[in-house]
Amino acid sequence: MQDLLVEVSHGIGGHTGRLVMTTLGTVLGIGSLVVTIGFAQTAAGQLSRQFDAVAATQAVISPASTRSMNGTETPNTRLPWDAPDRVERLAGVERAGLIGEVPIGELQITAVPINDPSAPEVLSPTLLATSDGLLDAVRGTVVTGRYFDAGHELRADRVAVLGARAAEKLGLNRVDSQPSIFVGERPYTVIGIVGEVQRRPDLLDAVIVPLGTARADFGLVAAEELQLHIAPGAGALVAEQAPIALDPNQPENFEVQAPRSGSELQENVQADINVVFLVLGVIALLAGGLGIANVTLLSVSERTGEIGLRRALGATRRDIAAQFMVESLVIGLLGGLIGAAVGVFAVVAVALVQQWTPIIDLPMVFGAALLGALVGLGAGAYPARRAARIEPIAALRGGV
Fold it and tell me: How far apart are CA 388 and CA 111, in angstroms?
C-alpha cells in the first residue's frame, strides 16, 4: 500500500500543469452542480415567500351551482348576508367581505344629473355592492377619503366609493367637497377613492355601494362571493370549517377555493425548479468526468515506458490498474472538494447581492464532494484497464 501511495503521489505531482487542468474540469462540474441546486433551493424559498404573502392568505367562497340541460348554471343556495360575521369567528380568518354585481339595467352612472342626448356615449362603470370588510379582505387601500362602514350599510345610506379608474372616467379626483355621482337619477355621495387592490382588481373600474343600499335601491337578492383574508397555513382548516359555519345542514352547497399549506407549496415549487437545474448540473459534471478520462488516457500513453519498467520489476496488472484508479480518485476528490466550496461561496455571494436568504443543503454539499471522487473513480476505470493490459516487452520497445 505504501508503494502504491508513493507511485500515486509521483504520478499526480509530476505534472503540475496537467493536474491543475484536470482538477479544473471536476471543479467546474461539482461547482456547477452545487450552484444550480443551491440557486434552485434559494429561488424556491423566495417564490414560496411570495406565494405565502399573497396567494396563501386568500380564500374565496361561492355558492355551488347546478348546470341545466341548456348549459346555464343555477346556484344551489345563497350566501347569507351575515356570512362575514360567521366566518370571522373561525380560527385563521382575519377579515371577510361579501361582494356582488348590482344589475342596473339601462341606467347610466354619471357625474352629472343631466342627460345630454348630444353628448358622446360613454361606457358606464360597473356597479358593485360590498360589505364594509371587503376592502381589507382583498387588500385594498383608499387613496383619498374613506371606505364605508357597517353603519352606512345598516342605514342603507346613499354613499359610494369609486375605483381609481372609474373615478378618472367620471372626472373625480377629490372627495373633500362631497361630490356626487348619479345612478340614473339617484344621487350617491362619493366618500372615497380606492387606489390599489391586490385581489379583485375589477374594483378599480367600478362604483362601489354598501350591500344594504343595493338591497334597498336595486333589490339585490344575493352576493356572488365571499372574500377571505386568512392567516398563512390556515387554508385547509378554513376550507373545512367555513361551509359548516355558513350552513351546518348543507355545507356541500358552498365551494371554497383555499390555498394549500405553505410547506406543500414550497416542496412543489422547489421540486419543479430542481429538476431543471439538476439536469444542467449533471451535464456539467459529465463534462468534468470526460476531462479526467481524457487526461488519464493521455497520461497512460506518455507513461508507457514507466509502466513497462514497473511490470518488468514485478508489478502485476492489478498494481498498475490500482495506481491509475487511485490517481483518478484523488483528482476527482480534490476537484469535488474545491468545486463544492466554490459553489457554496457563489450561492451565498449572489444571494447577498440580491438580498435573498441563501438556502443550502449541507448534506448535498458533502455529497457533491464525494460525488467528485466517484466521478474520478469512474472516469479512471477505462484508462486503468488499458494501462494494465500493456505488456512489459512491448512497452520497453516503445509500443503500446
Answer: 95
The reported pTM is: 0.56
Which residue bears the cell 430542481?
274
pLDDT in tens, 261-304: 555 555 565 566 666 666 766 776 677 677 777 777 777 777 77
Give me the helices (H) in the chain, please: 2-13, 16-53, 83-87, 134-137, 150-155, 164-170, 211-218, 235-246, 262-302, 304-312, 317-353, 362-379, 381-388, 392-396
CB of 262 within 8 A of CB of 45? Answer: no
Strand partners, 67: 73
Longest dimension (CA), the chain: 114
For cell 414560496, the residue is: 48
Looking at 81-85, 119-123, 179-183, 210-214, which range is the least confident one? 119-123
Asked if 318 and 3 count as a contact pair (C-beta separation under 8 A), the reply is no
Residue environment code for 315-350, b if the CB has 16+ CB neighbours within 10 A, otherwise e = beeeebbbbbbbbbbbbbbbbbbbbbbbbbebbeee
Cα–Cα distance measured from residue 262 to residue 313, given in angstroms and rounded to the nearest whole number? 67
400: pLDDT strictly greater than 50: no
